[in-house]
Amino acid sequence: MRLLLLRQEPLSPRAAQRYTELADGMLVLGDRSGYLIAKSFALGVANFGGDTAAALAAYEQLSAEINRLEDPLEQHAAMGPSLLLYQADGKPAAYMQQACRMLQLANEIDHGAIRSAAISNLGIAFFLAGDELQARHYLEQSLASNDLGGWVRFSAVAILAEIYASAGDVDKALPLLRVWSFPDQLAELDGPTLAHFHVLGAETFARLGQAQQARSYLEFIELTPPEQHSHDLRCQLAMAQAMHHQAEGRGAQAAAMMNEAIAMAQAMPRSDRTLAPRFWWLAAELAGAQGQWEQAYRLMDRYRRLEQEKKQDIAAVRRVAAQFQTDDSARAVEAAQRDRLTGLGNRERLIAVGDTWMARGLEPMVAMLNVRRFNAINEALGREIGDAVLQAVADRLGEACIRFDHAIAGRVYADQYALVLAGERGDIGLLGGLAADMFSTPLEVAGQWVDISAAWGVAHCPAHGLSMHKLMSHAEIALHEGRRTDAGWTVYEPCLIRADLRQLSLISELKRAAQEDEFSLLLQPKFRLADNAVTSFESLLRWNHPTRGLVPPAEFIPFAESTGNIKGITEWVLRRAMRLSAQLRDAGLVCQIAINVSVHDVGASGFPGILSGLLQATRARAEDIRLELTEGAVMKDPATVIDRMREINALGFEWSIDDFGTGQSSLAYLHMLPVSELKIDRSFVRGAANSSTTLTLLKAAIDLGRNLGLSTVGEGAETAEEWDLLRTLGCGMAQGWFGARPMPEQVLLRWLQDRLR
Questions:
Q1: Is the pTM of this model over 0.90?
Q2: Which residues 6+ apart lie within 8 Å of 181 measured at CB?
């Protein structure tokens, strides 16, 4: 088996019989894993003019058994040929799924060349979907490792050269063509890829007017066996020949060959899925050069349509890629700093990059933007379209980054993004004009035109801060001011905070308040309705300001979240609640305490580590801490939040969904959440006795929780009537003033001890 893997050669039609015979032999010998690998290789040969659909169906019948192979190297080898089949069948999302799984296996195998090849496959998947920026990133990363060799390296080079040529970056494409063209040892390289590469060379030099050089590439292709020419290669070769005729001044021959290429493409199975849109763009360019303007217009229209359709492939491939994470530490850091929906960096990534630029002497500028009316778009068109809108906004920000020497775009959360630029302060004027134009045309999303606008808040170094954390905070303050005044563009000024000195002082004193224990906890018991037993408590935060007195959470929590100070407050609450839970457990008392956390806390990659560290420092147990997150917070960014909730749940912490019924979650998301408790919002409990509609909604929420196997808690039950109603409807627990009011920690201990007497 090891010999088979070490001697693996590029797949070709001539290898079909050899691999089929090898598979049969392995089956006779009882080597099931060897049979699966050889059979997979034999099926992969169908990519070269065979019945790809039938071969793919046959492979997928084997896939379940392949996935059960215990040896990761054997499983990796057996999966490899399927990439050729998914590529030939025009299924980039399925290709990406296989590529991601193969990368996971490559990490288990821990072999540099295999891992580099797996990273290269990710780049190919993005390329097939039309996401050339992501493809370029992964292919360049793969080649930079210097672990790839032979035909695997050449495949990555060939696609990268095509990406450079498509982007008009001829200066980067030509060196690759010169180094890798006309190899002496043909057997060492993959024949079909070699042919594609030389078609690209013929196209490139024909477009440059270098007809003789283009001809040498075409002559080389004639040396490759015709049976290695796939359908799309034949189309591209005919187009390259047409371009060569045009470069030689043979207009009639060029037109005839172009029409032959187009007819061949139109007759090709699934041509719109497997032929790159660039084929039609080249055809339109050639038709225009011949003065056939009507045909050029039709071809360009087809090119644009396919480019739009490719966006759906890009979104699908991104979603698949976002579902997989590798165990490699560097990849784990990158994944933690990337937004799962859009592929952009998150807040942590922006801060890390910006701080690096500062260390190099560059002066970053942060432009924070918020998509106006996004909630209305989400409600009117649905969450799926809403997600597509967020991805389309990310695409435009990515395009904007190309215009600057140092630029990175990120999604901070929900519908809020940021651009971080480094350079002279004069770039603000350029960015301002760019921002005005960025959404001047509607977004086309899933066949619908969506008109959006954005509010922008800007802060720049050094005037507005000497750290990225400060710049991000000040840009966000400017953004909030712009949203409040309905301004499109707001540059940070200190007066934006001075406008409300009370708010300014509250924000500036938050860090001190946590350090000097100005906060305090109140605990409100939750009662089991079946027997009125106390089952747990909810912690409620209060700020006892030395001069202002008691400051309600509503006056400082929102500002803490928007300015990045919520982390310190959350850590203070967690530490105090964990200490109390350990004290209660030592005393043999009810000890589970619920703590409200913010979506900013959960979204931070370091939050699980903070929780683990606090458990060790306080001697608390994870099962004694229940974390509460509001339904609306989860729905701001479900892809990121749900994954992080699962990670924390694996540490032993339980989750509750707070204020259930007031958000816009779907049952699909609710089913995915790692929660054990639903807390039904007080507005349903208090209004149920006097409204049949509210009563119906309350009963539906209780039934939903019970059917999902979750505990249900009715919040804000203040009267005996409400208490009894919750019990009658089958609610498991109640929390409210009728049972007990919130009480300080020291009072709680006495209260619990009195109940035991």
A1: no
A2: 197, 198, 201, 217, 220
